[in-house]
Specification:
By secondary structure, the protein is α/β, with parallel strands linked by helices. The protein has two domains: 270 residues, 3-Layer(aba) Sandwich (Rossmann fold), CATH 3.40.50.2000; 190 residues, Glycogen Phosphorylase B (Rossmann fold, 3-Layer(aba) Sandwich), CATH 3.40.50. It has 19 helices and 18 strands. Strands 3-4-5-2-1-6-7-11-12 form a nine-stranded mixed sheet, with helices on both faces. A hairpin with a 2-residue loop joins strand 9 and strand 10. Helix 11 packs across helix 14. The longest helix is centred in the N-terminal third of the chain and has 18 residues. The protein binds adenosine-5'-diphosphate and alpha-D-glucopyranose (GLC). The site of adenosine-5'-diphosphate has 17 residues, from helix 1, strand 13, strand 14 and helix 14. The site of adenosine-5'-diphosphate (ADP) has 17 residues, from helix 1, strand 13, strand 14 and helix 14.
């Protein structure tokens, strides 16, 4: 199958969160299965061209924007650990800036930047003579391609047999633009914007809704989130649009790339390990505790270590922590390492706890890929008390590393973490329901109860490590969806 994948982030080139992990891992898996995939993303100023061997091509794209034409040049590179050629759209005006989206509320011209990316991606496919069976786009940034395909490009020979599949990673970000400008830049007929139209939500152009309404199939990143966004406020106001597309809305559970996330081969770790030699996980724990200057505890009874690697946003439930952690630290029950970047108020709240309990909590701020691997390997528990969570990847990394997740039962967390039952000895982690400090504290207490208590502790960790959340499975599920969207041509 020919797959054109267009997104604002692709790991390892440009990453803010899990979206990049998925758009980096899927092409590798599809290509290994014999599909022809063309991943496209902007050439942001922050992308390290030398490190990734990204070089210019002679292709120049003419991109129609409103009544004028703009130009983009094209760069290529090879996706690490694959033979997939990645295409980078270069426009100095739009993408040569620090950051991907811009701080806080984003750059003022994100509507124009991403509309340009969308239109440039169609032109690129033509320029390289790639006829996609499916165009797969992700989140609001590239959602408008679903409408561009329907109202414009499918009427041209190059895309006459192309289907559009749109994947929602997070309903919280929808791309609400000024309507006149967005319709114009997208090349959409002005008269098609009216109250209740496929582009409109509360008087604004809504890129997310546009993607949902125009795509042949809509997917989101877990089955539970697919339900939540239709029937609960997690739909963030677009429940109606999602219900309208119910018959074409499917949850495709995320997966992880075991080339990148496997404790047996992870070059970031002090010592690699497998489910059969979990003692080596202890070596990683001691190394990280020392690195972070945390109390090692007594050798005979080392304290459990809890980890978190996260964007600092309300989504991740960090606001519960000030009412939960001090009690565990006062009782000297646990150590904790948090790596986070994002909202300064949440960072300050965590920093305040870290200053009060320097022996117990280490807070690292900023983005640090290597440290994120070491935290996963060193920790005994991984905390993810999300307010909402479309899927979540870090709890999957944790399980692969024998690190026991403590999660709120929402979205993909409910689909991937099974509560450990000490009687049947089944399960992979600990869950709680209400978004309250009490419910989270109780789950942590339950989790700590099995720490080093055999046979539970080893069984639980080995079970978590044995779960198959591989990207290969996810990639094949997407191919099924693509086939439903674009039936094989006779
Ligand atoms: P989300 O996409 O909502 O942030 P996911 O769990 O799907 O949540 O993916 C988050 C990804 O970003 C993971 O790969 C995680 O390791 C990574 N990550 C988040 N914050 C940081 C950070 N501060 N430093 C390094 N990696 C981070
Ligand atoms: C979003 C979601 C996260 C999901 C990721 C990748 O950022 O917040 O839950 O895992 O996308 O799909």
């Amino acid at each position: 199958m020919n797959i054109l994948q267009v997104s604002a982030e692709v790991a390892p080139y440009a990453k803010v969160g899990g979206l990049a992990d998925m758009t980096g891992a899927l092409p590798r898996a599809w290509s290994a299965d014999g599909h022809h995939v063309v991943p496209v993303l902007p050439l942001y100023g922050t992308i390290d061209r030398e490190r990734f061997g990204i070089t210019p091509t002679s292709i120049v794209l003419s991109v129609a924007c409103s009544t004028w034409t703009e130009y983009a040049t094209v760069y290529t590179g090879t996706l690490p650990d694959s033979d997939v050629t990645v295409y980078f759209i270069r426009s100095a005006d739009y993408f040569d800036r620090p950051g991907i989206y811009g701080y806080h509320d984003g750059f003022d011209d994100n509507d124009r930047r991403f509309m340009f990316l969308c239109r440039a991606a169609f032109e690129l496919a033509k320029a390289i003579e790639f006829r996609p069976d499916v165009i797969h786009t992700h989140d609001y940034h590239t959602a408008p391609m679903m409408a561009m395909l329907t109202v414009e490009y499918r009427h041209t020979p190059h895309f006459s047999r192309t289907a559009g599949v749109f994947t929602i990673h997070n309903m919280a970000y929808q791309g609400m633009y000024e309507p006149g400008r967005a319709m114009d830049l997208g090349g959409f007929p002005a008269q098609d914007f009216y109250p209740g139209s496929w582009y409109e939500h509360h008087g604004m152009f809504n890129a997310m809704k546009t993607g949902i309404m125009f795509a042949q199939k809509v997917t989101t990143v877990s089955p539970t989130y697919a339900e939540e966004i239709r029937w609960t406020p997690e739909g963030m106001g677009l429940q109606g649009a999602l219900q309208a597309r119910s018959a074409d809305l499917i949850g495709v559970l995320n997966g992880i790339d075991t080339n990148v996330w496997s404790p047996a081969t992870d070059a970031h770790l002090a010592v690699p390990y497998t489910a059969d030699d979990l003692a080596k996980k202890e070596v990683n724990k001691r190394a990280l505790l020392m690195e972070c200057g945390l109390d090692l505890g007594e050798a005979s009874a080392p304290l459990p270590l809890m980890g978190m690697v996260t964007r600092l946003t309300e989504q991740k439930g960090l606001q519960l922590l000030p009412d939960v952690l001090p009690s565990f630290f006062e009782r000297n029950l646990v150590r904790m390492v948090v790596l986070g970047s994002g909202q300064s108020d949440l960072e300050e709240a965590l920093a305040t706890i870290a200053r009060r309990y320097p022996q117990h909590l280490f807070l690292a701020t900023g983005y640090d890929e290597s440290l994120s691997h070491r935290i996963q390997a060193a920790s005994d528990y991984y905390l993810m008390p999300s307010l909402f969570e479309p899927c979540g990847l870090t709890q999957l990394f944790a399980m692969a590393y024998g690190t026991i997740p403590i999660v709120r039962s929402v979205g993909g967390l409910a689909d991937t973490v099974e509560e450990y039952d000490p009687v049947s000895m089944r399960g992979t982690g600990f869950r709680f329901g209400p978004f309250t400090a009490d419910a989270l504290s109780t789950a942590i207490e339950r989790a700590l109860h099995v720490y080093r208590r055999e046979p539970h502790w080893t069984t639980l960790r080995q079970q978590a490590m044995a779960r198959d959340y591989s990207i290969e499975r996810t990639a094949r599920h997407y191919v099924d969806v693509f086939s439903w969207a674009a039936p094989p041509q006779s």
